[in-house]
Amino acid sequence: SLCQSKRPINIIDCACGKSYLSFVLNYYIKEVLGHKCSFTGLDYNSIVIADSKEMAAELRYNNMEFIETDIMKYQPEKQYDLLLTLHACDVATDYALNFAMEQKVKSIVCVPCCHREMNAQYSISGFESILKHGALKSKIAACLTDGMRAMYLESQGYDVSVVEYVSPLDTPKNIMIKAEKKSGENMDKVMDFYNLCNDLNVKLSIGK
């Protein structure tokens, strides 16, 4: 739907790593769809940023820039239409989603990674006999984390879907959160989010 407009699409890849997804998407948008676009890749790792810059130069993709920075410190100079974050570790996913909400990015595609923040904090009364098993506790933490992320995005006016984008045989980290901005903040849903945080005894990095 982003390509329906004739203007260039501005895309940001948070915790981009070696930016494989951005390079593939850049090729598809530019070469297959014939639509103008720009990409900004952010990562605090200087090595992967250098590798991404080198690859962009070799491919002559002058519409791609890569910046060594922390997501929370980045001050954008343009309005982004789409935010990507692929396997950003633990709360780095939340920082990327916070950036998208603060900057009013219209579309988000997020594939989370580990979920240590929730796993280290949460408790559910009556489920102690189940949560004493670490393997089960971590799997439940993953579902709770991504559910809470979806819940907060919805409270900020995003239409959200949570899907398995590939088979779990390919990777167990196969949950994708897709979100599109449709309306403004809903305070009732914000309160529902924080009430659930209280019920779970957690403080999460997503949100205000």
What's the gist of this structure?
The chain has helices at residues 20-32, 46-59, 91-102, 116-119, 128-131, 134-155, 187-200, and strands at residues 9-14, 37-43, 64-68, 82-86, 107-111, 158-164, 175-181. The protein is α/β, with parallel strands linked by helices and 208 residues long.
Task: Please give a structural write-up.
By secondary structure, this protein is α/β, with parallel strands linked by helices. The chain has helices at 20-32, 46-59, 91-102, 116-119, 128-131, 134-155, 187-200; strands at 9-14, 37-43, 64-68, 82-86, 107-111, 158-164, 175-181. Helices cover 40% and strands 20% of the residues. It has a seven-stranded mixed β-sheet with strand order 3-2-1-4-5-7-6, with helices on both faces. Helix 3 (91-102) links the parallel strand 4 (82-86) and strand 5. Helix 6 (134-155) packs antiparallel against helix 7 (187-200). The protein is globular, with a radius of gyration of 18 Å. The two termini are 29 Å apart.
Which helices and strands appear, and what pairs or packs with what?
Blueprint: E1 9-14, H1 20-32, E2 37-43, H2 46-59, E3 64-68, E4 82-86, H3 91-102, E5 107-111, H4 116-119, H5 128-131, H6 134-155, E6 158-164, E7 175-181, H7 187-200
Parallel strand pairs: 1-2, 1-4, 2-3, 4-5
Antiparallel strand pairs: 5-7, 6-7
Helix pairs in contact: 6-7
Please describe the structure with a list of short key phrases separated by commas or semicolons.
208 residues; 7 strands; single chain; 7 helices; alpha/beta; seven-stranded mixed beta sheet; globular
How far the N terminus sits from the C terminus, by CA atoms, comes to 29 Å
SSE order = EHEHEEHEHHHEEH
- Proportion of strand residues: 15-25%
The structure class reads alpha/beta
Our count of helices gives 7
Describe the global form: globular
Q: Considering DSSP H and I runs of 4 or more, what fraction of the residues is helical?
A: 25-40%
Low-confidence stretches: none
**What's the main sheet like?**
7 strands, mixed
